[in-house]
Amino acid sequence: MPENSVSADLQTESHKMVEWTDFERDTIQDIFSRIEYDVVGPAALARCLVVYPWTQRYFGGFGNLYNAAAIKGNPMVSKHGTTILHGLDRAVKNMDDIKNTYAELSVLHSEKLHVDPDNFKLLADCLTIVVAAQLGNEFTGEVQAAFQKFLAVVVSSLGRQYH
Amino acid sequence: MTTLTAKDKQTVKAFWAKVSGKSRTSAPLLMLVVYPQTKTYFSHWQDQSPNSPAARKHGKTVMMGVGDAVTKIDDLKEGLKELSELHAFTLRVDPANFKILSHNILVVMAVMFPTDFTPDVHVSLDKFLAAVSLALAEKYR
């Protein structure tokens, strides 16, 4: 049978895909099955708004963000934090194609929300801190590496459609 | 961005006092696992695994250095002058690695002190570590 050029293209495409070890897959599934989205999401977003206050620029309509206590108690922050975690869930369920899973969300963040993609990394770091606090000693170096790799892929995918 | 307010200094000193005595050596060790490129600085160790005696000892050295920086928080540039010369001329560690270590210190704080490591403590500690990194890089060029 002659060489099928379509399968050759698929070969190239699969070489561009992120490769996950079994440990990394299991770790990501495990973490996201254990954390409470409506606790971790709000905590991560609130922490981001406190630790990197310039990120508040995107939340002008959220009301009182005056200090850490206000941010923590702000219901719009909580709601949006939960929304973000559910957004991450899509990547968790599509680890082999995060790039395409997030194509629309990337366009949204670029064209409509006008979020500087550097901010994605800031939120990712805060999420790492919050998850670390939740998991305690179970957040080993290996788990941290897997989690950060996952978030790096998410961040990269979200920034892809910017131009 | 690295001017520490009085509140930052107070927060850092109070938090460091609280965590003092407990095992704080794991941050540098984490770094070797999570950012394997940092191992390049330790090729002279026979055993580069994070739990090796050499790694643990060095982790302690580094964290004691950070603790020392807390005592010099009012003038980090002057206080860390010699350490900066060491890192610049002898060790020649790429300053990008200071950021990596700072991140891992914050992660360890979250793991070990989940309730105490509030967002307010986090921001002050993050600023402090950035200021330490800057002071350490002072003599590089």
UniProtKB/TrEMBL annotation, chain A:
Keywords: Heme, Iron, Metal-binding, Oxygen transport, Transport. One of its GO terms (cellular component) is haptoglobin-hemoglobin complex. GO terms for molecular function: haptoglobin binding; heme binding; metal ion binding; organic acid binding; oxygen binding; oxygen carrier activity; peroxidase activity. Residues 19-163 form the Globin domain. GO terms for biological process: hydrogen peroxide catabolic process. Pfam families: Globin. It comes from the Eukaryota. PROSITE patterns: GLOBIN. Involved in oxygen transport from gills to the various peripheral tissues. Belongs to the globin family. This is Hemoglobin subunit beta-2.
TrEMBL record, chain B:
Signal peptide: none annotated. Pfam families: Globin. Coiled coil: none annotated. PROSITE patterns: GLOBIN. One of its GO terms (biological process) is hydrogen peroxide catabolic process. Keywords: Acetylation, Heme, Iron, Metal-binding, Oxygen transport, Transport. GO terms for molecular function: haptoglobin binding; heme binding; metal ion binding; organic acid binding; oxygen binding; oxygen carrier activity; peroxidase activity. InterPro entries: Globin, Globin-like_sf, Globin/Proto, Hemoglobin_a-typ, Hemoglobin_oxygen_transport. Residues 3-141 form the Globin domain. One of its GO terms (cellular component) is haptoglobin-hemoglobin complex. Involved in oxygen transport from gills to the various peripheral tissues. Belongs to the globin family. PANTHER family: EMBRYONIC ALPHA GLOBIN E1-RELATED, HEMOGLOBIN FAMILY MEMBER. This is Hemoglobin subunit alpha-2. It comes from Dissostichus eleginoides.
